[in-house]
Amino acid sequence: MTLPTAPFQKRIAVVGGGVMGAMTAHHLLERGAHVTLYDPLPYNNSINASSDTGRSFRVHYGDDLVLMDMALESRVLWKKMEADAGAATSNSKSWFHPSGKMLLADAGDPYARECALAMRNHGLLSREFTAAQAAARYGFQVNSAVLDPYGGILSPGRILAHLNTTLTADGLQRRGRVEALASRWVRDASGTKTQFDAVVVTAGAWTQQLLGSDIAVTSTRQQLVYFDAASALGRDISHLPVFSHMESGFYGIPTQADGLVKIANHHPGPAAHPDGDDRRVDLAFIDAARNFLARYHPKLAKAEIRRTHVCFYTGTRDRDFILDRIEHGPARGVIVGTGFSGHGFKFAPLIGRTLAELALNKTTSISIERFRSSRPGLYAPTSVVAV
Asked: What φ, ψ does residue 281 adopt, rounded to 5°?
């Protein structure tokens, strides 16, 4: 009698415990891998780039149909995970608030209109607002506006809390700081060197420290100001969409849980690193944030500021992601996910699945050709300011 043999369980290391690392671990565990996650901080820290009260979700990406399709697929994955977690039917537990995402347009600004046309040409809905309609419905003072009805607000705190619980229940092993790594091993701060079948790095601003300067990313300092939107508007802010203005780079994300609206700027700030940063927001940026609201939503401009924060983008010169197995240099063979530059959170379920597929030597379910670590756009002069 021949006894059935158990399938070989691949041992995978994931370095970096933000949403990308957690999603990668989730997909690896689903596929039967043994996963060790390395991060010196707990999941609910205020240091990594995944932590915040709310993250924007949108489908519009100008005429970039690849990112548009990736956003649509990610939305399906978010909604499925939310439903599987039992969070979709409760406002106090939901992960995704479908508020929509509004593009504000000045006279002569073609971007919002171009996004609307691209969405419609791709078989998607969009809604255009006149100045009077935008003012009456939302209080915006603009020449015109376009609503992406697929957009909304993701709740990082709820998402990461759920992942923390389920990953632990599914057998995830956790370790602390990493001192060195290669394609098949990781050495932690205690000096313990552990062998793996694959190593995935999703370490955000710490990516170059772990993999070297061959990884063409830059960490930039981004300032955030949180206004008391609920008191300023005198009503529930759940009707207010995420909003942004392409030319200035400013955007706003309202969050029902705390009644605040986060105002920040998507254009990359000065090169900086979170290690040792005091996280102080300067008065000039606070004034700029309030001036943005005074121009486009005067009622919100009168709100009190409840808190400020500094986060860090890790971006590439062409503002695209890196999703790849490194082919050259000391980090050859390591799988890396980085360069998410302030707009990657929405893609986390899809990116996690892709990195897991790479780690398991599977064909990726999306094409990663444009996200290669050796593409020419990583080394060309910066041509894209924001996405």
From this structure: -95, 130
